[in-house]
Give the backbone structure.
Amino acid sequence: MTPAARVQASIEILDDILAGAPVEKALTGWARRSRFAGSKDRAAIRDHVFDALRCKRSFAALGGAETGRGLMIGAIRSFGGDSGQLFTGQHYAPAQVAVAEQGRPFQTEAERLDIPEWLWPAFQAALKDDAEGAAKALQSRAPVHLRVNLLKADLSTAIQWLSEEGIEAQPHSACETALEVTKGARKISHSRPYTDGVVELQDAASQAVIAALELRPGMRVLDYCAGGGGKTLALAARLERVQVFAHDANPGRMRDLPARAKRAGAKVQVLTTEQAIEQAPFDVVLTDVPCSGSGSWRRAPAGKWALTQDRLSALSRTQAEILKNVAPLVATEGTLAYATCSMLTVENDGIVDEFLANHLNWRCGFRRTWLVSHGTDGFYTAHLTRI
């Protein structure tokens, strides 16, 4: 496919998404209808689509309309390109740009920085001087991070093995197990270090959330909101060799966890809700609760535009409820670790402070926030201890 044909395909996919189609479904549907497209074409089109979704408001302003066509015109203008070279109307290229598609200046800071207008005041209040930097970071692609499984290799060995597969990586300062991939990211899933369980795809801040826990050999640790199991496996790979349990309200999310644990050489016991209650208390309970995902909007940009005030309020109620319900599972002097991939106060300090106000026999000994502007996804964690 020519670059212009890729732009036209991106326009069609974006129109499907703007009409309500899930992002992955729209991309997959186009690929199935377009067998002529090679792997490089599909990768380039995917990049176009995700760039446009990250910057939907600013690209729409620059392109004159919130349509697939408007977003792609805005994207080209944003990156300093010449839309006339791609919008020719010839050989599967989109039609020429009309006079009416000249775009307009940004009307608000939130539009320029691609944050929902209703959310911008809360975003500024939460991040203060870092708000603009964080918003700009969310407009760009996320870095690719790997977690080195210390049960199988150290960082230098993992870097060497990745290099032999054409993948270049370097240590990331956020966590001792983290690598940032600088070249060859698309080769990871088929590389031997990945298939052998030496490395896992995991953001460096997500790894740092686990590294911040004070673990000792023999501890019983429950990942209560395990999801796909990324943090569960990070716990199981700690050299302290703790006993790891995984639970999720939707067990289907953990269906791949046993196979991934086997590949990693890790031991994980999956529990139902009833089993988690029966096996309590645990020395550490990690609650990586459902959240807005504001810290990972670079990877899932549709979530930024799907979030509403009502949805955020409902998430906050769910977060507070999980924290309250999980507290009885923690041993005396044990740790209840609260975590989100959000940078919003209402989901972070707001939830923790409310819990402490209602549970006077608990104290908070550790809190930390990681921001997207500092080279990782946005994350938050707080360690609560029963007195």
Q: What stands out?
A: Residues 309-326 form the longest helix (18 residues).
